[in-house]
Amino acid sequence: TIMRVLVTGAAGRLGGAVAAKLKARGCVVTGVDRLAAPQAKLELDRWFTIDLAATTESAPDAKGGDAASLLGEAMHGIEAVVHCAAWPGPSATPPPAVVASGRSSPPVIGLEAILPAKLLKDNVGSTAALCDAAVKAGAKRFVFSSSAFAFGYSHVPAGPQAFVPQYLPIDENHQATPLESYGLSKLAGEQVLSAASRTALDCSFVSLRFTNIVKRERWSDLPWSAPTAAEPLTLLMWAYVHEDDVIDAHVAAVTDAATADKGTHELYVLSAPDTRFAQPTVPLLASTHGLERVRGADGLVGNASPLSAAKAERRLGIKFKSWQQPRRGVHIAASPPSPSPSPLPFSPAAGTPRHRSVPKWNGTRLFALLPTSPQPKPKLESDSASHPATVTTPTRRASTALIAATPVATVATATFTTATTCTAPSLNSVSLSGSGAAHRALSDPNLRFFPLHRFRLACGAELPASAHLAYRIYGPPAQESQGVILHPTSFDAVHDELEYQIGPGRTFDTNRYTVIVPNLLGNGVSFSPSTLSHTLSKEPAATDTGTDSATAATAAAASTSTDTCFFFPLVSVADNVRAQRAMLEAEGVSFPLKMIYGYSMGALQAYEWAVAHPNSTLSIAAVCGASKCGDLNAIFLRSLGAALQADSAWSDEKRRFVSPPTRGLRAFANIYAGWGVGAEWYLSRLYSAAGFFSADDFVERSYEPAFAGCDANDLLSQIRTWRAADVSVHAQGDWEAAMRRIRARVLLMPGDTDKYFTLTEAEKEAEVLGERCVLRPIRSGAGHRAGDPHRKELAGELQHIQRHVHELLSEI
Question: What are the Pro residues biased-composition ranges (predicted)?
Answer without folding.
Answer: 336-346
